[in-house]
Specification:
Blueprint lengths: L7 H26 L3 H21 L3 H22 L4 H22 L7 H5 L8 H20 L1 H9 L1 H6 L4 H42 L3 H26 L3 H23 L1
Helix pairs in contact: 1-6, 1-9, 1-10, 2-3, 2-4, 2-9, 3-4, 3-9, 6-9, 7-9, 9-10, 9-11, 10-11
Length: about 270
């Protein structure tokens, strides 16, 4: 593995893995605390429509997926706040329509054979320098937003009614969390793909939740755990010539299994 570090694409993959892991650690904590896992799954699959749009119109994949994911997040936020009882139906609809739009637009693109597997299961070894700038910028924005509005986000995440009584703009922060989640999902698709992204958002957070007593601590611990899982998964993928995204998730699942095993023995 050490000799591979001389290659630029391996260096980019490692940097991308760390950036995405830290972002999913922070946002994954918010997703779990706010019970948004199903919503994040809907946004992940809907973002495939943005991938198809980017391919069809010929602009960067990240841009198309981000625009589509943010639009889906805002639509989900509106529907959740105004008709919560039907949200599962709306999410299923957004999930399916987004992917269908993506597939159709890719089919309509003349002379383009898209590697569907790279978007479904990730292609971290294909990360470019431009992708790294996007990931770094998004991680910086996430850290700034969470740092500046930490108390408001904390209040909205754990008790939205109390936050509303305190004068916190619950609708704004709820929508903000969803938008950041959508952008993080797009960021993680490059690493593990849209099918496996939910596991990356939830497995490290589940472990961190058991080891922390505050939201900030949970974010920090889950970011470190996600980084460890990602780097180990990349090593496993390189050593045995396996798909990187799937390897990262398998390592994460094994890590969760070991954690649960030792936790049970300690009890």
């Amino acid at each position: 593995m050490f000799e591979a570090l001389s290659y630029t694409f391996i260096q980019n993959a490692l940097i991308a893995g760390v950036l995405v892991s830290l972002a999913t650690g922070i946002i994954g904590s918010l997703v779990v605390v706010n019970r948004m896992v199903f919503l994040a799954g809907g946004m992940a699959h809907a973002s495939y429509g943005g991938i198809g749009l980017a391919v069809y119109l010929g602009f960067p994949i990240f841009l198309g997926a981000s625009l589509f994911a943010v639009a889906s997040a805002l639509l989900i936020a509106y529907l959740t706040l105004h008709d919560r009882h039907r949200i599962d139906t709306f999410i299923g609809l957004i999930w399916a329509v987004g992917m269908a739009i993506g597939v159709i637009l890719i089919d309509l693109t003349p002379g383009y054979n898209v590697d569907l597997m790279s978007y479904l299961f990730g292609s971290i070894l294909a990360v470019s320098s431009g992708d790294l700038w996007f990931m770094g910028g998004l991680l910086t924005a996430i850290i700034l937003v969470v740092s500046i509005w930490y108390r408001d986000i904390l209040a909205v995440s754990y008790d939205s009614e109390y936050a509303l009584l305190r004068g916190v703009n619950v609708k704004f922060f709820y929508s903000l969390i969803l938008v950041l989640s959508a952008l993080t999902v797009v960021m993680a698709i490059k690493v593990v793909g849209l099918i496996l992204v939910i596991a990356m958002l939830t497995i490290p957070v589940y472990i961190a939740e058991r080891l922390s007593n505050s939201l900030a601590t949970m974010m920090a611990i889950s970011g470190v755990i996600a980084t460890l899982f990602t780097l180990t998964g990349l090593w496993f993928s390189y050593t045995y010539d396996l798909t990187s995204g799937a390897s990262i998730i398998i390592v994460s699942a094994c890590g969760l299994g070991l954690f649960l095993l030792f936790s049970t023995k300690r009890k």
